[in-house]
Request: fold
Amino acid sequence: MDVLRRSSVLAAELRDAFDRSPTEKELVAQAKALGREFVHARLLRAGLAWSAPERAAWARGGRLAEVCAVLLRLGDELELIRPSVYRNVARQLNISVHSESVVTDALLAVAAQIFCAGITWGKVVSLYLVAAGLAVDCVRQAQPAMVHALVDCLGEFVRKTLATWLRRRGGWTDVLKCVVSTNPGFRSHWLVAALCSFGRFLKAAFFVLLPER
Reply:
């Protein structure tokens, strides 16, 4: 009951943050909440289970759920453009998922490559896809605890690299401008179409990262 109560309080705080200019701490908390939901959705799609009790309190609705729905739909479209990039991520990076430091270092290395030339929502979505791809690999190899580490890693990267960019745009709700509608049949804005070449960049990044591992 205490866990559910704390989850409800956190969900209320996250929802409230969407109605005003969020602080860095709130942006990081939202990044992790979005990461949990994004990963959970990808694991379900892969037919895998993962315990994330804190997600249920906010996932039923509100602005955070709306933002996550858009991130997931943009992720779907980006995967359609370059489906092989976000599958079997650990194998592409040539890493073992049995070491937390190896997995999180790999995610941070890919993130650094993704954002080395600037920040866009398309790149943010791509980062979440890479994290979700690694999460799927970890659960498939009986390492579900690594998923929590990946979510925490996303939050830390947002704090260090994306928080200022997000605050200038008013927070995570700015991603809603990337789409015409949040209905299931909506068509994405020009943003995702412009990312056709980005998948090739990420694919190339996989082969130059972590050469010593």
